[in-house]
Amino acid sequence: MKVGLFIPCYVDQFYPQIGIASLELLQKLGCEVSFPMDQTCCGQPMANSGYAHLTGGCDTNFVNNFSEFDYIVCPSGSCTLHVKDHLHSKENEAAATHIRNNVYELTEFLTDVLKVESIEGNFPYKVGMHQSCHGQRGLKLSQMSELNAAPFSKPEQLLSKIKGLELVSLSRKDECCGFGGTFCVTEEAVSVKMGQDRIKDHAAHQVDYITGGDMSCLMHLEGILKRQKSNIKVIHIAEILNSI
């Protein structure tokens, strides 16, 4: 299958190792992966700020870059959800529809499309899983705790296959970290307090690492951890799944 790798702006600019880990992981699992060099922002920041009417150029560019692929895979739940719910094209709506129906967050693609049963990874650390809001409530990557329903977590399903990894059970496993895209800019004090509360849960369980599927959330938590001079580190789930 032909897979187009869609890398979010902040990963491309600040955490390129996550894009590399995603590429290597997909290749290990037998995918024919390409990275369209002309890809840019999907338009989510503008749309979240109330300027969805200005994202037409982003949509057109996205369609031009990704319409030829069988699947589009992204190591970010929020960017994936934006494309899945909002991508349209006046010039080629059929192509936009194909993309919307075939864009997947990385762990979702591994569990639902590739149906991965085993991963030869090794990560001998105590890990807390931060489930971002878009991934959980938009993409349904894990069960919401307020529902009286059977629990599940696609990211945790994959992490359980990694040798040496000890996955802790958090007290409030689906609590928001406070990042929220532009929310952390417009409501800085509230955002920071939410992030501090989220970190307390992980720290109480004495984790070595906090992982997750959205580097935006992890970036927010990383900033707070550094200011606290904490020994806890953050790592994207793609890096763990690609570990040797």
Name some characteristics of this structure.
alpha/beta; Glycolate oxidase
Concise summary:
Residues 3-84, 127-221 form the Cysteine-rich domain. The protein has 244 residues and is of the alpha/beta class.
How many strands, which pairing sense, and closed or not: the largest β-sheet?
Answer: 4 strands, parallel
How much strand content do the residues show? 5-15%
| Rg calculated over all Cα atoms | 17 Å
Distance between the termini: 25 Å
Count of DSSP strands: 8
Low-confidence stretches: none
Which overall shape is indicated by the principal axes computed on the Cα atoms? globular
Domain Cysteine-rich: 3-84, 127-221
Protein name: Glycolate oxidase
Pfam families: CCG
